[in-house]
Amino acid sequence: xSDPYNDPSVNKVLAVDGDALVLAALKEQLxxxxxxxxxxxSDTLAREHLKAEIFGIILIEQNLSGTxxxxxLKEAQEAQPDATRILLASGISIEEVTKVLNSGLIFRYVSxxxxxxxxxxxxxxxxxxxxxxxxxxxxxxxxxQLNEQMAAGGGGEDGGGGMASAMGGQIAFEAINKMLYTxxxxxxxxxxxxxxxxxxxxxxxxxxxxxxxxxSTAAEAHDIGxxxxxxxxxxxxxxxxxxxxxxEWAVIKGHPEISSNIMLHLGEIQMADPEDEEEDNPFAAIxxxxxxxxxxxxxTGYPDKLKGETIPRLAxxxxxxxxxxxxxxxDVQLIKYMETELADHVFDPDAVRALVKAVPLTxxxxxxxxxxxxxxxxxxxLARPIFNTNGMKLLDAGKKLEDRHINKIHSINxxxxxxxxxxxxx
Length: 426
Hints:
Number of helices: 16
CATH superfamily of the largest domain: Hypothetical protein af1432
């Protein structure tokens, strides 16, 4: 889809921090990423800029002298409600940050010191979030204009207005997909693979077209709530969940409800009158499936510890699909393990059988997966180039790896450490 909204404010960043070194680092790192930075060291200067120009992204340190960073974020929210707000956090607990996230005051937070890759992903997501808001706003205005024209001309059924609402939903999901891939490619890849399998499940289970659409859309959106969590915590949870602290687990377990609430909010955007209690939210059924995709057949899951058939049917069908798509080796051994060890405990046995029937019928989309350097194997294909610390390209994207390539990378890494995270096609 072509980009219908062109706003120079999308990549404008207001950065507020009392530390001159932090501001210098932001001014050095953000322009190569495509962002224009206005860096100030006080709340007074920040207010002046908020009055004078429009920003797509507002980045504020929590420990400002004078007005606290949280209070300044609240002022920024009032002054420029469409801007994507990010908290620069240091010395703050996950529990405190989670409260701020849940309040809706910030889109995400970045811990200091940060990794440049994580900062880049956060800012790209923030810019996409701002663009999505503005595009949907433009479509809503168009929707109102069409409805007024139709009413003035005695128009009949909703044609143009319904199309604008549908386009708003399409824009939202395109933005969600981009943000998931930017935040962590494994999440975006899992979402697209799960969506493809769920369409096949709709066929083998002879679901109605409506239920198939709900199931596949829920597969696409099930993990969007994780984007509220620090990327390091998400990486740890996906790679080695036993290393997550109790506090981190509490945050992770909140993501199904956050994802569900985002779906409900998107549905409200498409409703003609969100305050009309008689009008059904078009995404309510999707939100319900998303909320319960981590419930377990034996009642040990989350968020509500539902058990057996009290778990919504489509959520039961989605759960083993997500597990399957999250594994690096989707093969016969994995299926056997799911059938013998997880069915009737974690998953509905009927849902696992549906997955087994659907996988051979599914054409899996090609995606990207993040792995560690030590996990590189011959036969893998690089999705992004590998550079050394001086920015020299060692291997190009699209390279089909052989043992000699991997040995070369490991030899260089022993002398001068390379970024340990690599993207490969899967």
